[in-house]
Here is the input.
Amino acid sequence: MQAQDIIYPTDAGLYCAPGDFFIDPLVPVARALITHGHADHARAGHGAVLATRQTLEIMAIRYGEDFTAARQVAEGKVRIGGVTVEFYPAGHVLGSAQILVTPDNGPRILVSGDYCRTPNPVCAPWEPVPCDVFITEATFGLPVFRHPDPMGEASRLLASMAEFPDRPHLVGAYALGKAQRVIALARAAGHTGPIAIHGALKRLCDYHIEQGIDLGELVSASDPGDARLILAPPSAFASPWVQRFRDPVLSYASSWMTVRARARQRGVELPLVISDHVDWPQLTSTITELAPQEVWITHGAEDGLLRWCELAGIAARPLRLVGYEDEPE
Here is the structure.
């Protein structure tokens, strides 16, 4: 059985024929396997969902307990139709996983979802999984994207707070994963005071704390008190909410801050290059390390990675799945 007969792209997303299921489907389907809880990968309304326990709990937080008719925690090897599936940590956000699909007679196919190899204090680290076909994103699949040490970026944030003690520092970070990572990095860099969070971040921050992740003292951004570091979803910066803070230092944590023109367009004074995705060196080194026979690219900067694979003598093809965001802004 050929790989392209086992898993292939459809209008509804990536479909596994011998298992009759979709992986991170773009619309409600009868059976879905979900890599992680970001909204462009984890949608409500599926008949049945298989995912890690933490991803299922995050989906319940976001969509309500009745987000699916049936749910199953992915533990060990799970048999579905004519394939066996296994979930491995992806290092992206809490609960994120890579999904290995192994048919009875055919190649081992690894669907990586979104993944990151840089150590992340708020989720389990990425694990290498041997495979014949590696299905990868290419969100930052260009040589310009080379992520600095996240601790160095956190130190830059604290240095700015020391330089401008009378100005609140507002950091834009999406609610699942990035906000908690920025908080944890700030703590590791030496910030011991309270950190204020926008209301949209509270429930997921609470969930991380429930999972044993220490985020220190968190207070509401509606009443920040002495807190001089405030986190909010990036969308809040375009709303009247931001006007309650006098002369703030606007910051944004994203790999897109590598592109300084984007920072200027958004009025970001302190760009922080902190990403939960692989950068170009990590992307190419992952392919080299796993040494798959084929590389399939779901979305992102496909052309750059296709050219690299061609030069490296690795068979590659784009899937051009529409509906996944690059790193959310």
